[in-house]
Design a protein that fits this description.
This protein has 98 residues and is an alpha+beta fold. It has a single domain, classed as 2-Layer Sandwich (GMP Synthetase, Chain A, domain 3). It has four helices and three strands, in the order ααββααβ. It has helices at residues 11-21, 25-46, 66-73, 76-87; strands at residues 49-55, 58-63, 94-97. Strands 1-2-3 form a three-stranded mixed sheet. The longest helix has 22 residues, at 25-46.
């Protein structure tokens, strides 16, 4: 009977290694950024959000209310900080509101 390998890995570590090795990381980051936007901003702002797109480090938010877009423009840095804190990684470097 063959001996077992003495090293052991957690499932989380194995999944992380697999995701980093494959091309799944970009897609997962896009989904995570969209979820973080809705979580951080809450239902009142989420209902005016029509589209959330992550391109590189730029998070592009499409809003249906021009008044809301103008109000959120004043807090871009705070919003980016909250989203990055929610993601536990500095993924978003720029925020564009359309």
């Amino acid at each position: 009977m063959a001996k077992r390998n003495a090293t052991s890995h957690t499932i989380a570590d194995l999944l992380k290694t697999y995701i980093e090795g494959s091309k799944l990381e970009k897609g997962l980051n896009k989904v995570s950024a969209e979820e973080a936007w809705h979580q951080v901003m809450g239902p009142p702002i989420s209902k005016y959000t029509t589209k959330v797109v992550l391109k590189g480090g730029t998070l592009v938010i499409h809003l249906s209310s021009s008044v809301l877009r103008e109000e959120l423009t004043y807090g871009k840095d705070k919003i980016m900080s909250l989203i990055n804190d929610s993601l536990d990684t500095p993924l978003v470097t720029e925020l564009i509101l359309k």
